[in-house]
Amino acid sequence: MATSITSVELNYLVFRYLQESGFTHSAFALGYEAGINKSPIDGNLVPPGALITFVQKGLQFLEMEANLSNVSMTSSFLCSYLCLYTYRCVCVLV
């Protein structure tokens, strides 16, 4: 399991997001500038909405990390950023 993402992968995810959202001109410009057509990524293996899913999972991970470590800076950042959403984290320690 990869723990990081390359700039090529991120560019492809943003490109796909722009296409899926109907921003065709922006997708074309990014695709041209980033050389998406030369990318080794097989687009058929990338599910629709992959960028949104990736970002949502990252935010969930940050929240879980903040709930487990009680780091005030991270918690206050998440609280101010995620105040629009309601999340409930239930942790069972064994």
From TrEMBL:
<keyword id="KW-0539">Nucleus</keyword>
<keyword id="KW-0853">WD repeat</keyword>
<keyword id="KW-0677">Repeat</keyword>
<dbReference type="Pfam" id="PF08513">
    <property type="entry name" value="LisH"/>
</dbReference>
<dbReference type="GO" id="GO:0006357">
    <property type="term" value="P:regulation of transcription by RNA polymerase II"/>
</dbReference>
<dbReference type="InterPro" id="IPR006594">
    <property type="entry name" value="LisH"/>
</dbReference>
<dbReference type="GO" id="GO:0000118">
    <property type="term" value="C:histone deacetylase complex"/>
</dbReference>
<dbReference type="InterPro" id="IPR045183">
    <property type="entry name" value="Ebi-like"/>
</dbReference>
<dbReference type="GO" id="GO:0003714">
    <property type="term" value="F:transcription corepressor activity"/>
</dbReference>
<protein>
    <recommendedName>
        <fullName>LisH domain-containing protein</fullName>
    </recommendedName>
</protein>
